[in-house]
């Protein structure tokens, strides 16, 4: 009889499992591709071991693992402070409940309503032209997290992406060239945007404020950034606060398109 009670499921148990699975999925999405992924996997393994020992009534090992989990909670908050901030921002994002972003999380629900895709090739071609003339540029591509909190620092726009438009915005005599631009889907939604600057001391000294601003916004949100250096003419791709290497523009385009699908 006890065995039957053990395997009996109620509707609340199913809801509980689904909610925990969804929470773990979103946390995994945040830490995937970062050094925190190994810590996350380790935590999940230790937590599963703790619950298994509790279920099997192995009191000694259960109390040891449980004590470790309780004491380590503060340390985990410190280690995952950036990821926790991004998760809370994602939950509180004004875009979180939108139809487009909700359905994007379920790739099997591809619908015709989402037909507007970012013209990645036009962005990269514009960056290459600006790099050849050493024209500085800072481009932020919005994904799931709302960037309204930085858009408000600049000028609201609604301009469809084209290569000439991007080049003209960052032209040194343009009144819009200072600061960053924000791209949402296939439109430039803000210009002259002020971004939070990262205080990470591991950023090489050769990178200036544009690169630090790109690292700063990608640390706090899931946005993608492209930076064209005014000093060297090099192009940098930044995601999750990290510089992502690429060999050529074809590989860069492929990486950005893949990241935008997530």
Descriptive overview:
With 262 residues, this protein is of the alpha+beta class. The protein has eleven helices and seven strands. It has helices spanning 2-7, 11-31, 36-55, 59-79, 81-92, 99-104, 120-132, 148-151, 163-170, 209-220, 249-261, and strands spanning 137-141, 155-160, 180-184, 187-193, 224-228, 235-239, 242-243. A seven-stranded mixed beta sheet has the order 2-4-3-1-5-6-7, with helices on both faces. Helix 7 runs antiparallel to helix 11.
Provide keyphrases for this structure:
262 residues; alpha+beta; 7-stranded mixed beta sheet; 11 helices
Summarize the entry for a quick read.
It is built from eleven helices and seven strands. The chain is α+β, with helices and mostly antiparallel strands and 262 residues long.
What is the total tally of β strands? 7
Mean pLDDT equals 79
How large, in whole angstroms, is the Cα Rg?
Answer: 22 Å
Shape: elongated
Count helical runs: 11
Strand content: 5-15%
Unreliable spans are 94-115
Helix fraction bin: 40-55%
For the biggest β-sheet, the strand order reads: 2-4-3-1-5-6-7
N-to-C SSE series?
HHHHHHHEHEHEEHEEEH
Taking the alpha carbons of the first and last residues, their distance comes to 46 Å
| Largest sheet data | 7 strands, mixed
What structural category do the secondary elements indicate?
A: alpha+beta
Task: Please write out the topology.
Elements: H1 2-7, H2 11-31, H3 36-55, H4 59-79, H5 81-92, H6 99-104, H7 120-132, E1 137-141, H8 148-151, E2 155-160, H9 163-170, E3 180-184, E4 187-193, H10 209-220, E5 224-228, E6 235-239, E7 242-243, H11 249-261
Parallel strand pairs: 1-3
Antiparallel strand pairs: 1-5, 2-4, 3-4, 5-6, 6-7
Helix pairs in contact: 2-5, 3-4, 7-9, 7-11
């Amino acid at each position: 009889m006890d065995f039957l009670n053990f395997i009996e499921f109620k509707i609340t148990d199913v809801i509980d499992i689904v909610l925990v699975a969804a929470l773990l999925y979103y946390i995994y999405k945040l830490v995937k591709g970062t050094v925190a992924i190994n810590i996350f996997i380790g935590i999940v393994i230790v937590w599963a071991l703790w619950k298994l020992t509790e279920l099997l009534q192995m009191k000694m090992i259960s109390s040891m693992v449980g004590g470790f989990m309780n004491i380590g909670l503060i340390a985990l908050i410190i280690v995952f402070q950036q990821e926790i901030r991004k998760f809370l921002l994602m939950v509180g994002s004004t875009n979180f409940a939108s139809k487009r972003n909700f359905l994007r999380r379920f790739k099997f629900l591809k619908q015709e309503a989402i037909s507007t895709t970012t013209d990645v090739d036009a962005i990269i071609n514009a960056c290459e032209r600006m790099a050849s003339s050493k024209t500085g540029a800072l481009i932020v591509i919005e994904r799931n997290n709302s960037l309204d909190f930085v858009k408000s620092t600049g000028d609201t726009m609604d301009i469809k992406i084209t290569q000439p438009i991007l080049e003209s915005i960052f032209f040194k005599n343009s009144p819009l060239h200072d600061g960053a631009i924000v791209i949402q889907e296939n439109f430039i939604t803000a210009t002259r945007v002020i971004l939070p600057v990262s205080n990470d001391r591991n950023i090489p000294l050769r990178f200036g404020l544009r690169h630090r601003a790109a690292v700063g916004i990608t640390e706090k949100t899931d946005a993608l950034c492209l930076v064209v250096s005014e000093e060297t003419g090099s192009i940098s791709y930044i995601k999750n606060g990290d510089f992502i290497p690429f060999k050529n523009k074809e590989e860069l385009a492929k990486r950005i398109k893949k990241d935008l699908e997530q």
